[in-house]
Structures are given as C-alpha cells and as structure tokens.
Amino acid sequence: WSTTARKVEGRLEVGGVLLTDLVAEHGSPAYVLDEADFRGRARAFRDAFAAYDVFYAGKAFLCTTTARWVAEEGLCLDVCSGGELTVAERAGFDMSRVGFHGNNKTPAELRRAVELGVGRIIVDSFVEIERLAAIVAEPGATTRVMVRVTAGVEAHTHEYIATAHEDQKFGFSITSGDAFEAVRRVQDAPGLELLGLHSHIGSQIFDSSGFEVAARRVLALHARVSEELGVTLPEMDLGGGFGIAYTTQDDPADPSQLATEMTKIVEHECRALGIPQPRLSIEPGRAIVGPSMCTVYEVGTVKDVELDGGARRTYVSVDGGMSDNIRTALYDADYSCTLASRASDAPPKLSRVVGMHCEAGDIVVKDEFLPSDLAPGDLLAVPGTGAYCRSMASNYNHALRPPVVAVRDGATRVVVRRETVDDLLATDVGAVSG
Length: 434
Ligand code: LLP
Description:
This protein is of the alpha/beta class. The protein has two domains: 6-32 and 291-425, Lyase, Ornithine Decarboxylase, Chain A, domain 1, CATH 2.40.37.10; 35-290, TIM Barrel, CATH 3.20.20.10. The protein has twelve helices and 21 strands. The strands form three sheets. Strands 4, 14, 15, 16, 17, 18, 19, 20 and 21 form a nine-stranded mixed β-sheet that branches. Helix 5 packs across helix 6. The two termini are 41 Å apart. The protein binds ligand LLP.
C-alpha cells in the first residue's frame, strides 16, 4: 500500500480521499495514484543515491504529470520508445537529462533523439551503432552514448523479465567479446561520445548478488577498455530492477541500503582493478511508482464453484481485469486485495478475483481471503498496481482503459482520463459515428 492509505471505519482512504467518494466522482475501475507517495519514493532514491544520477524508468508508468513530478524531484528520465520520448518532450522535460533505450530504435527515432539533444542514447546492436554514427556524421551533430552489455548473470526472477543471461535479445555479450568490439566501434565513430557501459539484469529482483556480479563484470570491461584502448570510461549504469512487496512475503531493500551496497561493491572493485571510479547511475521504475498506485474495482458478480474433492472456491468478478492488469496472466504475478467500501465482520472466505474478459486466465488476484458477505456493488482495491499495469494496459474485448486519478491532501485530479467509446473507435476507419 502507498504510505497515505488507511482504513476509516472499514472504508479505504488514499491521499485523504475515500475511494467510495473517488468512484462516485470518477467511476470504476480507476487507478489511484498517491502523489505524496510517488514523490516520496522518488526523493528517497535521489537522496540515497545523491552522488549518482537516478533515472526514473518511464516504462513502469509515464504520463506528462508524472514526468513533471520526476523533474521536480530532481531525477532524470529513462525512456525506451519514441512514444515515451514524446511524453517527455510534451512534459517539457530537460532532454539533456533523458536516457533513450531500446533494442530496435528506428532511424527516425534516433534522429529525433539526436535533434532533441537527448542526454544519452544506450546502444544495443552493431547495426544501431552504424545508424547513429551516420546520423551524427552530419556537420555539428554529436551525441553521448552508453553501450548496453550483457553481464551473463542469472537474475532470480521470471524468465520474461530477466535480461542479463546470454540467450536473450538485449545488449552486447561481455563473454563473447562483442561488448568490447562495440566500445571500440563507438570510440572510432566521430560524433559519438562514449560515456560508459550499461547493464540491466532484470526486474523485480530482491537478491543484490546479481547486481554485485554484474558490477564486477562491467568494471572488469572498464579496466580492459582502459588498458587496451587507453580510454577511461567516465560512467557506469547498473539499470533498474529493484523488487517491491506485492504480498507480505516479499521483503524489498530500501534505497539507502541499496546505495550503500552498490557503492561498496564499486569502490572495492575499482580499487582491486586499479581504475578510477566511474560515476554511477541507476534506473528504478517499479520501486518508485509500483506501490504508489492501487486499482479500485466494483464487484459485479459472486459465484461459488465446486472444486475436485468437494472444496469450493468463490469467484468474484470485477469490472476490469487483464486489460488493466496483465501481470497475473502473463507472469503468474501475486497480488492481494481488500474490501474498500465498507466494514465487514463476516468470516473470511478464500476467493479469487477475476476480470470481465472472455478468457479463463483473466485473473486479477489468484487467492485472497475476502469477507463471505461480499456482494455486487462492493468496491475492491488492489495495491501495488503502479508499475506495468496502466503502461501495459490494452483494449482487449474493446475495454475502455481506466483513468489515472491522482490523490493528494483530500483532493483528486485526473491525470489520465478514462477512455471513451469514441477513443476506441477513432482508429476504426469504417465506424459510423453514433
Ligand atoms: N532499465 C532498463 C534498461 C529496463 O529494461 C528496465 C525494465 C528498467 C530500467 C526498470 O526496471 P524496474 O526498476 O521497473 O524493475 N513488464 C514487466 C517488467 C519489465 C521490465 C522491463 N525493463 C513486469 O510487469 O514485471
């Protein structure tokens, strides 16, 4: 839960706003964004990593309002597509504080990034180095580059979000020598200024040993570059991936603990390798916005189903589902939820919260003990939906994507409005206006 969430006589309040009031005004489902919590987490990272640059990873959740909050709290911004770059631009984000990622940026996107003066472009393939070199070959053009490397680490997380083992699409392998070759080519390209190496080992990670191994391998390459090319790389980025608690079993590290551990590793390794310490940067997304949002749904139906062996399971259907949170279906992610609209003394019953989509895997919360008197019209709130929920939302079954409603000091502010049927049909060229 975000820091301002609390129950008032059974009713959930976030940012001083009762969710019953929020839904009465803005409808359901809705993502509820706790502004103070978001800013607080951003600040905690900035303060803990005060000697470094902290890039908020926009892929977790980005809109112009949050981009402005990120700027106001003194963080930089990581974007990974032309679309995210446009949001940054519209928000008036200082482009020199933007990092541009992606394994298949188009030549047009690269050109735009150079024209906008993006602070760093993280290159991911030899083809891209060539493309970028051609763009900056034009008189006056120049850009700062980081080389994304694959540190060869097995991060302990879901296969789809682990990114530092060899057999996946991102980065240049350190082991095969490609990473060194990429550094050489960037170094040889006039107009490309090499800042350093970038490693991102995966997402929703709790065990810091993965970061430690990655840092060691990346710094070893820094040392090789210094020795063989006579170049001191001024920076190193260790990416994001810091886990958050989705259920009470998860135990995330806090930013200052992470900062202390990372600093220790980097200092130690640099001393051992006899190289100067590069300036470090990190890219947390989930750890900032994840806990700042919850999703509020209205219960539509409640159904008891008999399982093999005679046990029963209660299926609680809500007015959203995999179109606003794909993570349970896609990664088998664990979420929890609570009755948000009233108090209940009814005994708890093991329930499964499901969506309204035509798919059996459309599960929001796999298992939760909910009051046995749960009924249509009740509101349920699911915490921890700030990261990779709205940003991965879809219009599956022609669902309208919910709004993002910011709450602060008892007031609500819509920062992304609810989609309308007109939005939905805007790209359907055959649609006749109603
Ligand atoms: N930096 C890079 C280069 C990344 O690829 C990512 C995430 C981040 C930073 C931010 O990672 P975070 O701190 O948010 O874990 N859709 C998946 C997560 C995909 C992460 C992709 N890259 C999910 O819902 O779990």
